[in-house]
Design brief:
- 30% of the residues lie in helices and 25% in strands.
- The chain has a six-stranded mixed sheet. The chain has a five-stranded mixed sheet with strand order 3-9-8-7-6, with helices on both faces. It has a four-stranded mixed sheet with strand order 1-2-4-5, sandwiched between helices.
Length: 408
């Protein structure tokens, strides 16, 4: 497997100081699932009464842990819960053996922690098509139990990494009814990023009190505005999972509360954008704003067509303001467009308008703009009120180098 030693140039300066969430404890171990010399298994144990919501990949080749989690979401919320994640092996495309591995791991977690099997959720990330050595994970359950701590969330973020170059975390705290409600989340993701539900592996915890069905509805709505608006390489993983856990420890019922919803969406968007900033080989973070579409749905189709275009992404990598490639991506998207109404800008530079290059366009100014690390490409279709924003990165030689020898 490719060894990633250089941190992304788009990485934050440091892992954020996340608040400890009452009602959840973390532990990590080095189980040797695939990696040597680093932690690769994370366990989170949640107090009784925790509501758990989840969204998952809609891939037709979903991994065994995803199928198991989907079956369990929406069940009883009165008992404790647990989440166990391993990196290095996706336990995907492993037939009945994959299901056996999930059963062995969930039962072992239950035996060690007292959490009912129906409330043990697992995720696996890494190589597809190789049998998961679940016995190595099972052998570490007692050590994981002994190491549980409220303050080990950064360790958890590191243990779930694969080709990630930095651990990802985000948080928010809001005042509701005179009390503080906290939210903290971690994520992993770097390649195989074109979510069709959420993104890679994401775990968000809050001490808010929210009934499961309300939590599920909130998560689904906010996923479409955050994780489903990012792409690195147009490939949807077999293992994408997002779990949102509300322990209720604050005693504050946030059902239907707009302040809490906005804070949660902020955490989700922060994590989603960190995944893009850690895109394999990425050197540019790109925001694509589409306005004037026939509908919001059309705007998103256009945005993702631009974001997923290898020609657009390689031009960005080469710092080339090749706006013709943006025109191409819009034309191929399948959503409504009119060449003679189209306008395109790079940052504040108007590149094209009304189906033609802008008379004031400066190639030199656009080329200078493209040398920045954070870029904005704006498109107005001139058709209606539809709008959408998506986020992506450039496509460099680094992406090829990482993925050409991923299994070696």
């Amino acid at each position: 497997m490719a060894t990633i030693t250089k941190v992304s140039p788009l990485a934050p300066a440091a892992f954020p100081d996340l608040p400890a969430i009452d009602g959840v404890r973390f532990a990590t171990v080095e189980a040797g699932v695939r990696y040597q010399g680093r932690t690769d298994v994370m366990l989170a144990v949640l107090d009784p009464g925790t509501s758990v919501a989840g969204v998952f990949t809609r891939s037709a080749t979903r991994a065994a842990p995803v199928l198991d989690c989907q079956d369990k979401i929406g069940g009883a919320s009165d008992g404790p819960a647990a989440i166990l994640v391993n990196s290095g092996n996706a336990n995907a495309f492993t037939g009945h053996y994959g299901q056996t591995s999930v059963a062995e791991v969930t039962q072992a977690v239950s035996n060690a922690t007292g959490v009912p099997v129906a409330r043990v959720f697992t995720s696996s990330t890494g190589v597809i098509g190789e049998l998961l050595p679940h016995d190595r994970i099972v052998a570490q359950l007692e050590a994981l139990k002994a190491g549980l701590s409220r303050h080990a969330v950064e360790d958890a973020a590191r243990a779930i990494m694969t080709t990630d170059t930095f651990p990802k975390g985000a948080s928010a705290q809001v005042e509701i009814d005179g009390k503080t409600v906290s939210i903290a989340g971690i994520a992993k993701g770097s390649g195989m990023i074109a979510p069709d539900m959420a993104t890679m592996l994401v775990y968000i915890y809050t001490d808010a009190q929210v009934e499961q069905s309300a939590l599920q509805a909130l998560l689904g709505a906010q996923t479409d505005r955050t994780f489903n608006c990012i792409t690195v390489d147009s490939d949807t993983s077999t293992s994408d999972s997002l779990l949102l856990c509300a322990t209720g420890a604050s005693g504050v019922d946030t059902t239907g509360n707009a302040t809490f919803a906005a804070a949660l969406e902020g955490v989700m968007l922060d994590l989603a954008q960190q995944v893009v900033r850690d895109g394999e080989g990425a050197t540019k973070f790109v925001e694509i704003r589409v306005t004037g579409a026939a509908s919001d749905a059309d705007a998103k189709v256009h945005g993702l067509a631009i974001a997923n275009s290898p020609l657009v992404k390689t031009a960005i990598a080469g710092e080339d303001p090749n706006w013709g490639r943006v025109v191409m991506a819009i034309g191929k998207s399948g959503a409504a467009a009119d060449r003679d109404l189209l306008s395109i800008s790079f940052g504040d530079i108007l590149v094209a308008e009304k189906g033609w290059v802008s008379p004031d366009y400066s190639e030199d100014a656009a080329a200078a703009y493209m040398k920045g690390q954070d870029l904005v490409i704006s498109v107005d279709l001139g058709l209606g009120e539809g709008k959408s924003t998506v986020w992506t990165c450039d496509l460099t030689h680094g992406y090829i180098e990482i993925n050409a020898d991923y299994r070696s």
